[in-house]
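can u pls check wat happens w/ 6R9
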Amino acid sequence: MSNIGSYEKRVEDFSWDTAREILNWKEGELLNIGAICSDRICRMGRGDKPALIWEGFGDRRSVYTFEDLRAYSNGFARFLKDLGIQPGDRVCIFMDKIPSLYFSFLGILKMGAIAQPLFSAFGDESLEVRLASAGTKAILTTSKHVKKVRKVRERLPELKTVVVVEGNPDRVREDEVFFDVEAGPRVDTFEVYPSGPETPSVLHYTSGTTGQPKGALHVHNSVWGQALTASWVLDLRDDDVYWCTADPGWVTGTSYGIIGPWSLGITQCVLDSGFTTSRWYRFIQDNRVTVWYSAPTAIRALMKDGDEVVRNYDLSSLRHLASVGEPLNPEAVIWSGEVFGLKFHDTFWQTETGAMMICNYPGMEIKPGSMGKPFPGIEATVLDLATHEPLQDPGKVGLIAFRPGWPSMFREYWKKPDVYRSKFVGAPDDAMPEELRTGGDLWYVSGDRASIDADGYFWFVGRDDDVINTGGHLVGPFEIESALVEHEAIAEAAAVGKPDEVNMEVVKAFVTLKPGYEPSDELELDIMNFIRKRLSPLAMPQEIEYRDRLPKTRSGKIVRRYLKALEWGEEVGDLSTLSDE
Ligand code: 6R9
């Protein structure tokens, strides 16, 4: 029997109190994610249980118990407090998936600051934009990545402290601090910050179509959504060994690579080495992984390497598989059923939603290609593209929307109240704050299109904007275009997603050159590297097309929509009619 049991019954009887019951959490108890994921598990007598099984490149392997997690997160909390970090300050975590990432994440929350995880493959420009926006006070990084911080530090007056948590202490500069939590004395007691449900916890940057990335701010109350979905969708149980393949630089890696599983006291494992099919299968085999949460791009890459290699490993420990981040194609669901004897269960959610929203549940029939049904307690619909009225007819395509008020909903875009407001429709502006808590008549509009079939299953259609989804990672075209026009040869640029067999989409750039520059393969490589270093390997265009001019609206805005339609072989319409709508 799965944790969820009957989906219909859970929908009928739903209350978020069930999350508190599962954790045995009583009203009046401390609500701090850092403590809930470590101290609380120890207090319940499970301190000796492995919390983190970590493997890196080569043969590096460590196992940490919940007691270790408690002591090392205390270590970070105490250290940051002694440095003068205040509750509410933003503390960035900029490192690979090393154990200190996990310890410091909980430590930051324990001392009341806001954790701002950033993907370690980000280049200096991606880093700078996000640190400047958040007014980040301190950054935790490693010798491997500190160079990128040094490059931008003088342009970030609010960034007071740079901490190197792993690497060579002798190479740390005078204006930086070295802190190796495992080398120091164990910190057995730390007075955890008395956060409440609405105390900010995590700040995740996510890309939109226009402007630079926005910081989605979450609060400690999110834990109820993350814990309950981890229990009912991932079906996590006490004796599981769980593997979430996502990096905590992205929301899946925090909501389901830290908070959800550890709030339930589940053992999880982390693989901090690049992707190869054999390494992944060996990791599952050696650690006897039972529940595996991954992404369509990874599944397609495994598929490409064939069925033969699967038979070289003993993957019989696996009992439940789930996926997130991009449309999960029916072939991948069917393939996994054949080779693993288990179907991947698709889940749909966003940085903004903080937890799973539309899912396939253990025990419910999977329709391959469908994202499943709304999580119990979540009111979901599709809205008419023009009128924003909920659509009644099955199969009609509209905008996926959710009734506000679920515990893990983002509470703001950092310092961008107008953009936040613009994500909600259905009520006058002044009704906003109160309605956000109660739901009222408001809908949160996700920015994705879908239809709902007669059985209530949701079918993903596509994004409603120009954001590029490459291998489950969102990249904003504006950020890429801004970086492109900083290249000496480029006059104008447009970035769009182009279809890709494994990654679903990859970035393609259309550029016009400044006088005196000629298109060449060499220039193309130079531009690609320029973006890879400044932004990230994900944002790097896989193809650059030189053009004499770019399609524009009458007022001179570049029309990405047109270029994208060309790439996808869709109807492009008559350019002369383009207006500024
Ligand atoms: C958790 C996460 C969110 C966007 C979302 C949508 C796409 C996520 C999906 C999916 C189709 C799924 N997306 N899950 N598309 N099927 N099951 O990925 O958060 O990085 O904010 O991305 O990803 O476009 O709006 P985030």
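The chain has three domains: 7-378, 379-464, 468-568.
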